Amino acid sequence: MLVHSRPARRALHILFFVLFLPVFALPLLVIVAASFASSWSGPLPSGATLTHYQDMAHGEAPTALLTSVLTALAASVLALAAGTWAALAAEKLGRRARRLLDGLFLLPVAVPSVVVGLSLLVAFSQPPFLLNGTPQIVIIAHTVLVTAFAYQSVTAALTRLDPAYEQSAAGLGARPAYVLWRVKLPLLLPSLTAAAGLCFALSMGELSATMMIYPPDWLPLPVQIFAATDRGSLFTGAALAVALMATTLLVLLAVSRIRTKASYR
């Protein structure tokens, strides 16, 4: 809309596709093509087959995918609750205290995720918080890693929120708890759903910290993808990656529909 010349718009469209296809679309298309290939010795795969998906359906992949989904759902809910609570509390703090809180929530993102995994492994390997070797430590790790994104999303939404709604409700005699649950949180619902979708997607693809702490009976799908490719089964790993991408996209589309409905209320 900022470019009024038709040739200039066409040039921008061409430039977009030239940049988008090799950087974003082509790697994903390569993974999809590899998941159906039996061999790949030339520029294109050969020997189209469904064997990798059939083996995946009868192996450990469905359990690993369910593990990833359950972990991501639990981490998203916990991160959204903690991030929203902290953002609402930070709104009432002074500038210095708010900066300190921002730094604390951004710290897990500023360091490599493998450091987060190692720190949790050390922290929860001794009583009274002995969680090493349990699914709970994986969920905690994912929650720590994605809470910063929920916190930042809700904080940004709070800065854009018109205080007139809260002031009107308070002026009519509404209690602070009623204003929060019936006025403020409904206005934040689109941002909350967007934050939940982002947390879910990030948790579904998390690998580094998970590799440090996952127990044998709680194997997320990214770990299985890494194991398959590490032993040379690239096409099997590609099929697993397609299943991971498809599941994540379906959940994000569902969250997007919820967000759209919430925006029109």
Structure summarized in a few sentences:
77% of the residues lie in helices and 2% in strands.
Q: What characteristics describe this protein?
A:
265 residues; mainly alpha; 77% helix; globular; transport; transmembrane helix; cell membrane
Characterise this structure.
The protein has 265 residues and is an all-alpha fold. 77% of the residues lie in helices and 2% in strands. The chain has 11 helices and 2 strands. The chain has helices spanning 6-35, 51-58, 61-90, 95-110, 113-123, 135-160, 164-171, 176-204, 208-213, 221-230, 234-263; strands at residues 37-39, 46-48. The protein has a two-stranded antiparallel ribbon with strand order 1-2. A hairpin with a 6-residue loop joins β1 (37-39) and β2. α2 packs across α11 (234-263), α3 (61-90) runs antiparallel to α8 (176-204) and α4 (95-110) packs across α6. The longest helix is centred in the first third of the chain and has 30 residues, at 6-35. The radius of gyration is 22 Å and the shape is globular. The model has no long low-confidence stretch (mean pLDDT 86).
